[in-house]
Amino acid sequence: MDLGIRGRNALVCGASKGLGRACATSLAREGCSVTIVARDREQLARTAAAIRAATGAKITVVATDITTDEGRAAALDAAGTLDILVNNAGGPPTGDFRKFSRDDWLRALNGNMLTPIELIRATVDGMMERKFGRIVNITSSAVKAPINVLALSNGARSGLTGFIAGIARESVRHNVTINNLLPGAFATDRLKTMFAAQGKAAGISTEQAMDERRKTIPAGRFGEPEEFGEACAYLCSAQAGFVTGQNFLIDGGAYPGTF
């Protein structure tokens, strides 16, 4: 299906690897010009080269820290007039909430709540004036089913979710949608980090912790980043203009609830 976004201009944060890279690749394949942002310059350059080779799309690279004012300014300047924004930042550390300091909480809020809000603030009005915009926030399945060792993520991402619920109803009349993608267990570096912490807490190996989690997923496996990227591309499509303020859970059926 042609998603109707060929020629659109996209900014994808946290795009050097994992789910961010998958989203950037899917948008590039649909004909978007994509600016990708991450801190690791070398990894970002390798990712850009791979996406260009696979899609032939224009890929602009910005090696910066998107959680800083300077980083956001650099990314927005390089991206130009935006049609599509994919907010994504590395998850905060795992661990026992009793051991987190106030500064730990502030860093988590800055990275996973305030930074997306700042980027939305900088772009949403222009999108509404031009009568097209798609904003997708990569959050976490922990928004619906909190995970004990992800206290910082649970709190910060839930705050973003509440904010989006309000603004998404304001922008949609101008053909600007804002939605959240909630990944479950995907085969990424972040997954291994999380299970290393869980395994250590339980006195088992990372591999054992991963095996135990895999058994709880009805799909019987971890998700592939490419599956996530394609879901992101659909939410950015011309056809998705009637979808806003939603939290799309992609977890292989792991969440047991009806709502």
Which SSEs are present, and which pair or pack?
Layout: E1 9-13, H1 18-29, E2 33-38, H2 41-55, E3 59-63, H3 69-79, E4 84-87, H4 102-130, E5 133-138, H5 151-171, E6 176-183, H6 189-202, H7 206-215, H8 225-235, E7 247-250
Parallel strand pairs: 1-2, 1-4, 2-3, 4-5, 5-6, 6-7
Helix pairs in contact: 1-2, 1-8, 4-5, 6-7
Q: Indicate the proportion of strand residues.
A: 5-15%
- Mean pLDDT equals 94
What is the H/E order? EHEHEHEHEHEHHHE
Task: Describe the oligomeric state of these chains in a short phrase.
Answer: single chain
Relative helix content:
40-55%
Please tally the helical runs, counting DSSP H or I stretches of 4 or more residues: 8
Sheet with most strands: 7 strands, parallel
Instruction: Give the overall shape.
Output: globular
Alpha-carbon Rg, integer: 18 Å
- Give the uncertain stretches in residue-range form: none
- Based on DSSP secondary structure assignment, what is the total number of beta strands? 7
Strand order of the largest sheet: 3-2-1-4-5-6-7
| Straight-line distance between termini | 29 Å
Structural class: alpha/beta
